[in-house]
Fold each of these.
Amino acid sequence: MVFTTRNPYNSERLNTYETHSDKEVEHIIANAHQTFLRFKNKKPESRVVKMQNVADILIKNKLKYAQQITLEMGKPISQSLAEIEKCAWVCSYYAEHAPELLKPNYIAAESESYISYEPLGVILGIMPWNYPFWQVFRVIAPNIMLGNSVAIKHAPNTLGCAEMISEIIAEAGFADFTYNHLIIEEQQTEAIIANPFVKGVTLTGSTKAGSAVAQIAGKHIKKSVLELGGNNALVVFDDADINKSVDICVNARFQNTGQSCIAGKRLLIHHKIYKQFVALLIDKIKKLKIGDPRENDTYISVLAREDLAQHLKHQLDISIDLGAKLLFGGNQQGTYFQPTLIESTSLDVPVFKEETFGPLLAIHSFETEDEAIQIINQSEYGLGASIFTKDRERFQNMCWQIEDGAVVMNDMVKSHPKLPFGGTKRSGYGRELGKEGIIEFANIKTIVIHST
């Protein structure tokens, strides 16, 4: 089979890529395993310089890499540059901190006891298109520093980005087959997970894809980490800084043209400030610069594929039919979807109940703290929530009751190399980043020494 990549902004054909045969995949995985065997017993310190080389290469060539992201999935260039800079950040973080994070943990139990964190083998990563560099590097950096080899199945519409990542890892000085770029069809995935050299699988993608991969991993008794969909809530209380909250909420929903699992998709506004907040929100949305993603001042551009825009329009239309009120936007043509604000008195419409992957923000009013918590938790997703208030005690009280993987006060939910990232419920399980991320695919070995 051949994959063809296209520029979503103008439909220009970019390149074609032939898939790897099953035999080629087996060869790659076998070699990745051999590389793992050669380097698994070397300490993380031996990989520090090479991982920092990766960070340096990313910064040195960030415009080239950012342009490739923009070309293949339509991300505005300023945001593509930010993505590359964040990749360099996570590589530098693990280059600096992995030796400390992976030190044996001595426990006062029996005689001499400690926990050792050791690599497992080849880890398969199944990656999305919306952050074609960042999603990959937050798998690469911790796992390679731990001592695992990594094989990545990239999204078929961002294979040019995938090739560049391969070149970066090689240029940094890592051994052949430390990092492996697989061009495969979905049906080849099960055989890869079943391969005895593959010790775990991590997927970032849809809940449907995560469920399928988890079933396969479970069948073969392989560790899995799933970072899936989200329907994050933004909750604004009447004591919040309104202007600042509007700015953050707009950015939380519309950056990357709304194509983010952690985007704020449900906006809950306290009834006392509802009209004022909505008026400011519409004014802010109207001022977003829409256009060619290659232009430095463009904030909103196109979605990565036309079918994604069509699906979002379908969710919008059904919601309007069920009584939701369109306040702004709503137009769709090809891969373009106009930034949209929709008001719903019902919480059981697609734009509020489902994940919306694009520049559409659903709003709803609330009166009490308990009501806000109930609305947040009724979602089948559990990735993150943002609470806007000046009352720290209120925030702490809500944190204990919110079921999500992250809760943030007066800011949008975002990933940070030092902090574990992941969700609950249908948003998946397991954690990336931080110490929790680097030991997800480690053999957490208990060692007890008794003197004779």
Amino acid sequence: MSDERIERLDITRVDELQAIELRGYPHPWSARIMQDTFKAGTACWALLDAQGRVLAYAFFSIAVGEAQLLNLCVDPDHHGKGFGRQMMQHLMQVAQDEFCTILLLEVRRSNTAARRLYESLGFNTLGVRKGYYPNGAGATEDALVMGYEII
């Protein structure tokens, strides 16, 4: 049996989340964006180890029957352990429990690992947001908009 658990975090954990974000992404959210997201009332769910350390987290909002994944990050030290899948399955259940009809997300076109995960969970590509993500030195990258219909 695993000692990991998923809990909702609050703004007091921003520094810990920011440290993971900086190691996890070439274009990470800033601490200010995280703080503002918390202040806006957005939920942050995290997979914690037995000592309460964050292994993965997700910012996740629900409004008018739609759930939106804003940011999912697995600590790079824990890639390949199924934590991203565990987080997504939890969020899909939260969306269902909240009577959402769809869960939406954007993913970098180049992020094949994340795309494979989402597709394996039943997400479909709904469209493209051209130039959505920064990609260094003024360049951008398209985002694929993906959705999971909740029955």
Amino acid sequence: MPADLSHIRQIMAEADCLFSEAQVEVAIDQVAAAINGELAESNPVVFCVMNGGLIFAGKLLPKLSFPLELSYLHATRYRSETTGGELFWKAKPEISFIDREVLIIDDILDEGHTLAAIIEFCKHAGASKVHTAVLVDKDHDRKARPDLKASYVGLSCEDRFIFGYGMDYKGYWRNAAGIYAVKGL
């Protein structure tokens, strides 16, 4: 059933802008600099987590100044909803990363169940080391594991329902040029 576009437009009209496009771009530059400083000699396999990580990866990858192999994976708990459920694999990695360092690029570290499952999958499948880069780390104490932290974080934000730069509201507004919070959520 198609979404009620008037509701979708209203969400954006009422949303609070947490980070402007310029602020997000500065954060992406900082993440790129950190990755360039640490992974340039590691010959990593880089995986973009679809769909959320697509915009972040697209902005980040041209700023990485070393050779890498790129692929994608698609695992989700949301399936166009606003609350997570069981992990669902839509596409597992297709490039071999046995005995290689892996960099996973994703949009957000919220509770981290999906990211934790992807990290474990990569470790069990033979990665020598797994790094993670997220555009946003949400501030709260509900992480999947107390020690779950991204290797590289662009921005930290309050515990609200956010969208933009790859993150969605019910499948919409991934294309928003900035990071927004749904009013009241």
